[in-house]
Design brief:
The protein is 38% helix and 17% strand. The protein is an alpha/beta fold and 349 residues long. The protein starts with 7 loop residues before the first strand and ends in a 12-residue tail after the last helix.
């Protein structure tokens, strides 16, 4: 199945903050206010999305819904989303209420990426949040159970038995309120393998794939990821869902156009110019290369990146601690000199 969506690009911020050398984002308040300002600037540039990674027990973004609601109030067009929420930590019904309310504030611009989660600083952070696997479950199973409950809740299905003070008759179950029509078609799963991409398709969720796959077949990362995307689309077609899915991939893209760029990223360009293979969570994993350097050369490389071409949305990871001005400049250079090579055009108001 081929996508019918136009090519989109969005930025993806991990929301780091701290007082390290050169940081322009020293506190949590800095990170939040700067995230809002960068989303406003990105919308003015014609960028399509502002996405945020969620981590707990770390100096990073952790509570996405207040942030996304604030961005929604300051913008009118740009998509606002997560990439991704760790569902091990979530109360799915409370999350359904927050998501629907935020989506209504944004007039239907929310794109919520979720997953089973990645390694966190806490030894068992989900348990510290009050969430424990059922007998026979793994924490990954628990995350998927939470996701199923969340999807059920935002679908408008009845959940709770009416009590004596219910405002309606007792003939049907109460649903979570508010409801936001269409939100259930804007949920994405962060998949790190080809098999998980097929599972994602069967669940009716869009596919979000990052710069890491927890498997390796020896072929270049972009080709392995393109295979993952194709397997997702094949599984989607077999499942027969009633809408066309979306697919996003993430890339680290940093055009070097001046001495400041060279100072920050010149050495990294040499170290990260090829795929890397390593171990994460005990699994042999392939990490995609970064695209750092001359904009024309990056444009040519991205045009040959099979996964970027196959996806409808490209997430640009941003060095958020360098501040709003630097990241706005970086996004502007990508929009002008690189993104057109993958068929992207700036969005209009």
């Amino acid at each position: 199945m081929e996508t019918t969506f136009k090519k989109r690009i969005g930025f993806l911020s991990f929301g780091h903050y701290g007082t390290g050398r050169g940081s322009q984002t020293n506190t949590a308040a800095d990170a939040l206010h700067q995230a809002i300002d960068l989303a406003v600037a990105a919308e003015e540039l014609g960028i399509d999305g502002a996405f945020f990674r969620v981590h707990h027990f770390a100096r990073q973004q952790a509570a996405p819904f207040p942030l996304m609601a604030a961005i929604a109030a300051r913008t009118s067009r740009i998509e606002i989303g997560t990439g991704v929420i760790d569902m091990r930590y979530e109360n799915p019904l409370y999350m359904a209420e927050q998501a629907a309310a935020t989506d209504l504030i944004s007039d239907g611009r929310l794109q919520i990426g979720v997953s089973r989660g990645s390694p966190e600083p806490a030894a068992n952070g989900a348990a510290d949040f009050g969430h424990y696997p059922l007998d026979g479950e793994t924490v990954a199973d628990m995350a998927r159970r939470h996701t199923a409950a969340f999807l059920h809740a935002i679908s408008g299905a009845g959940i709770a038995e009416p009590g004596q003070h219910a405002y309606m008759g007792g003939e049907r179950l109460l649903r979570i309120e508010p409801q936001s029509p269409g939100l259930s078609q804007r949920i994405w799963w962060g998949a790190a393998t080809r098999d998980t991409a097929e599972w994602t398709a069967r669940q009716g969720m869009n596919l979000m794939s990052s710069t890491l796959l927890t498997e390796d077949t020896g072929i270049p990362f972009h080709q392995l990821q393109a295979e993952q995307i194709q397997r997702f689309r094949d599984a989607w077609a077999q499942a027969g869902h009633g809408f066309t899915p979306r697919v996003s991939v993430s890339r680290s893209i940093i055009p070097v156009v001046d001495d400041v760029d060279q100072m920050y990223f010149g050495l990294r360009a040499q170290a990260d110019s090829s795929d890397q293979v390593g171990i994460i969570d005990g699994l042999v994993s392939r990490f995609g290369k970064s695209y750092i350097g001359d904009p024309a050369e990056i444009a040519a490389e991205l045009a040959a990146d099979e996964a970027v071409q196959a996806a409808d949305t490209l997430m640009l990871t941003v060095p958020n601690q360098l501040g709003v001005a630097y990241n706005t400049k970086m996004l502007e250079n990508i929009a002008k000199h690189i993104a057109p090579a993958i068929g992207w055009e700036p969005a209009s108001a």
